[in-house]
Amino acid sequence: MATHRTAHPEPTYAPVMGRRSRSRSRSARPTRESNEKTARAVQPHYSRSHRRRRRNELPSYNHNGHKVDKGIHPDGESGRRGINPFKFVKICFKSTSTLSMMTNLLWPVVPVGIALHFVRPEWHLAIFITNYIAMIPAANMLGFAGQEFSRKLHHKAIAVVVETTFGSVVELILFMVLLKTSDGDHNVHVIKAAILGSILANMLLCLGTCFIAGGLKNDVQEFHEVVSESASGLILVASVGLILPAIFYQYLVNNADYDGTAQLITYNTLKISRGVAIISLIGYLIYIGYQTMTHDGLFHEIYEADEHKDADRHAELAKPKLTMTEVLLALLISLACVSLVAIFLVQEIPFMVEEHGVSDAFVGLILVPLVEKIAEHVLAIDEAYDNQINMALAHVMGASIQTALFNAPLVVLVGWGLGFHMDYNFAIFDAAALILSVLAVGNFLRDGKSNYLEGMLCVMVYVIIAICAFYFPDPVSSTAASAEGH
């Protein structure tokens, strides 16, 4: 338990009329305010000794009566060792929630999608649909394995970052496969749209659904200002970094008031994008240090208090857990399935664009983000429904921040190394949709409360963007390249 400094009571004075009593009252007021500020500034949970003491105070036996191994948090102790195939399958299938368990019913589609790629390679539409569906249970299992791993960690702030990172692995794999299998710069347009689409899906669709699920059950939910303000501020700064290279290009290209050819402006935009990517990665490391090192105690207490709001907490703790070996096995299986499905899915995107008239913008902005973040979305919605709104907000906004400050810059730098023209020169429609969405969500988070009305508004904005993306045409260069290929 955290030890707080005991505040001595302020002396009270009788209401004596006169100049001296009024001056004494005025002089006492700033002193009292300064003491309150000092009390707020002194945070015992920031000290390393407190964190060490809190770790030592953890119980030796968990909720189920299992002896807790050294280095394992009681909430994640399984009471077993090694691998038990039957318990492994049973625990993975039941997952963490009913919604997550329902997605596991789609596992039979995974071998079907992989087999169709080898047996019937000419069935392009069937391969795309089956592998698109197969990505859902594979990504869900990866997210579940990440949750089981984070349960075993002592610190909640680090656990949330780990969960968010595992949830974003699918996105990173898809980006890298799209980049590596790109015919020239054809897939670059899809990647650019997918970067912004992932952020929009998290902030509008997922966060909106969280507000709806939590609002319908709990009426109004309140979240901590530290979680909301740090997340909204970071995503706004990250969005500015993403769209400024696009504004630079669109303003200068074919502008007679400035010197410079279109080729030079394009090259300068590429250099600016690479510089922004490096700065973004540094910003991401600072953000991780803020959450897990300098202010980890504050976030730990917020998330820990959130967990105790769950009315089903005792039932959740009583559920069987995976052993560390089984967690690693689940990660290995899910990563293998996600990688194979991602490759087969990406290979069919040109067919969908050319033969069925689906635009690059709709594939990247809507289709790819919907399936890549399924595990993160299911987890956040379940947390919001259980009144753990701070945890839900941390997962949703954390995933958006990771996409903007880590995944997108990494793709730009890897593209630089592979010789692809991967930059932040987004379409103005995509850039405007991103900034307007960030401003809208920031406005909803400002009062520190959420309800189902705000959730519906977020989802409505996302549906409007999806409709616009469906009718958004492909770039002329992409269409010409497709025609030459035929």
UniProtKB/TrEMBL annotation:
What the entry lists under InterPro entries is as follows: CaH_exchang, CAX-like, NaCa_Exmemb, NCX_ion-bd_dom_sf
UniProt cross-references to Gene3D superfamilies, sorted A to Z: NCX, central ion-binding region
Query: Transmembrane region positions?
Result: 99-119, 125-145, 157-179, 191-213, 234-252, 272-290, 327-346, 361-381, 393-418, 424-445, 452-472
PANTHER family linked = VACUOLAR CALCIUM ION TRANSPORTER
Record's keyword terms, sorted: Antiport, Calcium, Calcium transport, Ion transport, Membrane, Transmembrane, Transmembrane helix, Transport, Vacuole
Q: Topology with regard to the membrane?
A: Multi-pass membrane protein
> Which Pfam families is this protein grouped with?
Na_Ca_ex
Please identify the protein, giving its name as recorded: Vacuolar calcium ion transporter
Q: Which domain of life is it from?
A: Eukaryota
Q: Where is this region: Disordered?
A: 1-78
Organism field: Dothidotthia symphoricarpi CBS 119687
GO biological process terms held by the UniProt record: intracellular calcium ion homeostasis
> What is one cellular component GO term in this UniProt entry?
endomembrane system
* Compositional bias ranges of the Basic and acidic residues kind: 30-39, 66-78
Q: Name one GO molecular function term.
A: calcium:proton antiporter activity
The entry's family comment says: Belongs to the Ca(2+):cation antiporter (CaCA) (TC 2.A.19) family.
Kindly list the places in or outside the cell where this protein is found, as annotated in its UniProt entry. Answer: Endomembrane system; Vacuole membrane
